[in-house]
Amino acid sequence: MIEGDLPPSDDMVAHVWRTSESTWTAPATLIPLIPEGRREPLFCVHLGNGHVRFFGRIAESLRAGRPVHGFEAIGYRTRVRPPVSIAEIAERYVRELRAAQPHGPYHLAGLCTGAVIAYEMAQRLRAQGAEVAVLALADPPSGMPEYDPSWGMNDLYEFRLGWLRTTWGLEDPVADLPRVLDEMKTRVTLYEPEVRPEDFYRLQVLWAATVFAQEHYEPRPYDGPVHIFAKTRDDYRVRDYWLPLLRDPALCLIDAETTRELLHHPLLARTLGRALGHEA
Fold first, then answer.
1. What Å distances lie between residue 140 and 95, 200, 255, CA to CA?
2. Mean pLDDT for the chain?
3. Source organism's superkingdom (predicted)?
């Protein structure tokens, strides 16, 4: 690890807060994924781990002639304290979105925790009188809270480390890290090649902060059209949690085991592509 970083057995959350800059010093988070296109862009919001660039490869088959832009998480590339409120994140992203595209209609897609952020962004855009033509929630949380509501960020961070041990075999937090990080990059593209081992545990704090924000978010009813893409096994939970909030929902259930499988599924590409303007 780089000098000044702590091994994950120490208080990594407090360490990140002590050694990072203010959230408001973070550079812009909106990045071009596919710059070419003559129609209004599709804006995509990152996974809970902050990563969004992988979506550029998926979006080529569904973008319907639109440029594709992605929001990376605040703090994904720079050492700043991550925000812990969906409202705060959405407010920041809406400002960047409207600087890139001052007028609607807008097309939004959110992935996992990013679906919650995109949902709040759509609320704010509509409150400003803007049209949100497409709001797509891909593998959204199938009910919140998903974790123990009493957990703070330290609890979520420790839960994340347990998941890394169980799923990826990260038993030794230093010796096993290069192998695990390489597998997470190549097998499932959870991180991009530029992510360094010395950034890894700080990025797990970013995950904990983003999930903390998700877990304390109370979604309001939304009266615009919404496309939800969910795993078949989450059917009843999505119906119980999300559909009562929506006036005009379209639920697409996909037989997938993982978020990666769902995002690469041809049914998602066809359905979202039609919503974005492909011919049926």
1. 23, 24, 15
2. 92
3. Bacteria
The Cα 45–Cα 55 span in angstroms is: 10
Which domains, and CATH codes, for the chain? Answer: 12-276 (3.40.50.1820)
Alpha-carbon distance 259 to 185, whole Å? 15
| pLDDT one-digit tens code per residue, 68-85 | 999 999 999 999 999 999
Each residue of 71-80: b (16+ CB within 10 Å) or e? bbbbbbbeeb
Start-to-end Cα distance in the chain: 51
Place of tokens 């959350």: 13
Strand, helix or coil at 222?
Answer: strand
Taken as a whole, the chain contains a residue count of 280
**Integer Cα distance of 223 and 214 in angstroms:** 21
